[in-house]
Amino acid sequence: MSDQTTDNAVSVKNIYKNYGEIEALRDLSLDFPNGQLTSLLGPSGCGKTTLLKIIAGLLPATQGEVFVNGSLVTKPGPDRAFVFQDFALMPWASVLRNVAFGLELRGVNKNEREDIAAKYIKDVGLVGFENSFPHELSGGMRQRVGLARALSVDSPVLLMDEPFSAVDEQTRRKFQEDLLNLVKNENKTFIFVTHSIEEAVYVSDQIAILLPRPSRVSEIIKPKGFRNKDVDSIRKDREYLDTVESIWKSLRTYVE
Amino acid sequence: MLTRSFFLKILSGALIFGAWEYAGRTGVNYALPTFLESMKALFDMTMSGLIFEAYADTLRPLAVGVFISSFIGIGIGVWVGLSEKFDWLVSPIFIIMQAAPLAALIPLLIMAYGIGLTSKVFVVCIMAMPVIVLNTSVAVKNTPSSVKEMARSFLGTEKDVILKIIIPAASPVIFAGLRLGVSAGFIGAILAELKITPTGVGDIISYSRMTADYPSMYAAIFSIILLAVLFLNLLEKIENFFFKGNNQGYIS
Description:
The structure holds two protein chains of two kinds.
Chain A: E1 8-19, E2 22-33, E3 37-41, H1 48-56, E4 63-68, E5 71-72, E6 80-83, H2 95-105, H3 110-123, H4 139-152, E7 157-161, H5 169-185, E8 189-194, H6 197-203, E9 206-211, E10 216-221, H7 231-234, H8 238-251
Chain B: H1 4-26, H2 35-48, H3 50-82, H4 84-99, H5 102-113, H6 117-141, H7 145-153, H8 158-195, H9 200-210, H10 214-242
């Protein structure tokens, strides 16, 4: 058992990941506090998604350990749900079946899982689209399906891999506001990969800045002052603007 | 229901049969009967029951061959798509089967399996199976990795990933392969009847050619084409029934 089971939902300890000759992650350690949203922020190629997939149990680490609520991660588990950048919906299945798919794979019977799915379809605002197919939905709606699927398995940890990067800017802002409410209302731990500095500062309780080659955590920032303000005034907040600015200063040298 | 596409299909048929009728009447070739003569011959054969007897013979190797090719072909194709080693072991056989000139292999088949049903089933399978196997394996290999990852991350087992993700995802290309394979199987069935022993529809074709009964010969050819087209339409219906959202391609 790890010592921080109460405070940290997820602990990453001394993770190394090599792809052949290429060193993707080197000795990376990071804690993800319970019930909070932690962003992994960094330039492309810094291993954010690799780290997320190691936490998900989709990729094995070359060395090092990941603990979720005290237990060692070796494969995907019921304590983690994943939201994919490209939605990863099944084009041959209706919205209802897509949302219920996580439960279907867990062997929940059809009526029960469709009831649960219907609730989350309502929560993400897709009522009336239960029988639509993914190709009939807009990009934003597709990601709502992906989100509803992840929420419906009710895992304590939600892993989000650049979930809003494939949707348009307006939808993205709406999603960010919805995400803040989700973090506030659901007692879940969110791990959120993004390459947008503004997005990370806007939604996060904690931002881990990853730097590339080899990847490591260079800095952890915990915005405090504006976290409890309402969604509209965050973007005007002094601390918000200063944080965005300082992150950009530390990252700009790594951008070609 | 008279939709626009239905009207166009009728028009397309009328144009082709009209051209056939016209060519038959003007006498481009003494061996070309008119469309109406051929239809009359088909009608006579239907009335006398000759065509049904013929199909009872022809459909046996065809049905057995298409059935074997579809199920075993898809099975092998999925396996080839999933396992690189099996791919190396098996793919060359099917590539050779597809490339080999079948008519040249028929004497070998006769020597090995005689002139009965087995040889004819083999001919149908050699025609139908390679394209089904190769299409299926390509489709399986190209399943988008994020959908597979999705199933794994939501605790899908290896079996779930194959049955619930890979096969449905591959189904449009598998069905395209089935359509090609089945129509090749029809060719194989007739080829077997012309090259191995004259039975069924192949017998009508070769016998009426020898007796210069060209309307009957064309009637037999027409009927096998018609049957093939109807069967392909049926396959398409089956595909649309099972995988409704799939005909729109991938979304991301």
